[in-house]
Amino acid sequence: MRSWPVGLLELFGACTWQLPARIQHGRPLRLLVRAGLAALACLGVLAVIPGQTAGPFLVAALVCWFVVTGRSDLGRPRHR
User: Fold this and answer.
1) Residues ≥6 apart with Cβ < 8 Å to 26
2) 61 pLDDT band (50/70/90 cuts)?
3) Residue 47 three-state SS
4) Could you tell me the residue range of the domain that residue 56 belongs to?
5) pTM for this one?
């Protein structure tokens, strides 16, 4: 008996399976620009404060920013 209605592996598999279609039906250019800005910001953080303890935290924060705000550029998920 499962404690979740859908298993975590099944949910992860469904999300990754639909990701290319969601990118295609969403705003791919805007998502690409957002990814480029996040990557440049990460490189900038690592160039400005190399070897500091705040570097990995700031890079993780930028990655989280990209993941959270990037959802608005994806298309709607397909109905089952």
Assistant:
1) 73, 74, 75
2) very high
3) helix
4) 27-73
5) 0.69
